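I am writing to request your help with a piece of structural work I have in hand. Here, with my thanks, is the record as I have it:
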Amino acid sequence: MVTQRRTGLEEWRHAQRGAAPFFKALASSRRILIAGMGGGFDVFCGLPLYFALKAEGKAVFLANYSFTSLPYVPRPRLAQAVFEVTPDLLVTPGEYFPEYWLSRWLRTQGEPDTVYAFRKVGAAPLNTAYKALVRHLQVDTVLLVDGGTDSLMRGDEVDLGTPMKTPPAWSR
């Protein structure tokens, strides 16, 4: 008896037949924005979802709440606080600009290479920027990803920080 070996993508699709509730909840989504919510490199934590959802035939876009001063990006086109970042920007090697370096890497992978960056602003302008991007991309689902633990906070903490940055009070 000859057994045909499945490719990685076929294995993943086969496993999704009994999909986790998270993926079942996204079954009707067609256009998805994955956005890093904590700044820095949080958007990178969304890459496994990006590739998994694209393998399901969904249109997926990437964005990030940026800690970069964004001096390289031309005037915003969508809203005051959201910028298109592409590999064509002139950035100094080694410069802190996670969205730019991700856009360059996406190009090397043959993927769409635009990553959207949200300027560090208050809640109202950020909300306006998200709404503008959602309209522009015509997304029906927004997924926020966080690479640390600050999104799990309750609001009564003394300070922000992850376990690697701030030792717990009991260890001091």
Notes: The domain at 29-148 is CATH 3.40.50 (Rossmann fold).
